[in-house]
């Protein structure tokens, strides 16, 4: 696969670290390196380990929705897909000012850093 710009007619939110480009789930990387580093947000619904995580997931999803409401966003494909069964493309989404949205979520506390084999505990 070749890295590059992805054109989306619609860009919506699936959860705090997953966007849908024309209905296809894509995983936000937060300027990370595929399979080395990225971002993680709380799990939604039955995937959450506790009520606190479910609540945090809805807050993170809401913040991402606010950020995606901007005009002129750029979705950049890393050239690879994640290792889940869904094979989501790994992407970075940039605002018109050049700020990467996943990195912004990290800075605002809606996301945490991710590394292979690591699971963030949102219930502590």
Radius of gyration: 14 Å
- Distance between the terminal alpha carbons, to the nearest Å? 39 Å
CATH class: Mainly Beta
> In what order do the strands lie side by side in the largest sheet?
1-6-7-4-3-2
Flag low-confidence runs: none
Q: How does CATH name the architecture? A: Beta Barrel
Percentage of helical residues?
10-25%
The third-level CATH topology is OB fold (Dihydrolipoamide Acetyltransferase, E2P)
How would you describe the overall organization of this protein?
With 124 residues, this protein is an alpha+beta fold. The chain has one domain: OB fold (Dihydrolipoamide Acetyltransferase, E2P). It is 21% helix and 30% strand. It has two helices and eight strands. A six-stranded mixed β-sheet has the order 1-6-7-4-3-2. Strands 5-8 form a two-stranded antiparallel sheet. It is globular and about 40 Å long. The mean pLDDT is 95. It comes from Rhizobium leguminosarum bv. trifolii WSM2297. This is Micrococcal nuclease-like nuclease. InterPro entries: SNase_OB-fold_sf (IPR035437), Staphylococal_nuclease_OB-fold (IPR016071).
């Amino acid at each position: 696969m070749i890295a590059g710009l992805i054109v989306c007619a619609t860009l919506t939110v699936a959860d705090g670290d997953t966007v849908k480009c024309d209905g296809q789930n894509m995983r936000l990387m937060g300027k990370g390196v595929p399979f080395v580093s990225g971002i993680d947000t709380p799990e939604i619904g039955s995937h959450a380990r506790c009520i606190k995580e479910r609540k945090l997931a809805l807050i993170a999803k809401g913040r991402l929705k606010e950020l995606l409401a901007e005009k002129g966003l750029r979705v950049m494909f890393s050239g690879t897909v994640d290792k889940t069964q869904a094979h989501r493309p790994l992407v970075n989404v940039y605002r018109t000012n050049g700020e990467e949205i996943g990195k912004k979520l990290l800075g605002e506390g809606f996301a945490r850093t991710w590394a292979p084999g690591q699971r963030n505990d949102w219930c502590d």
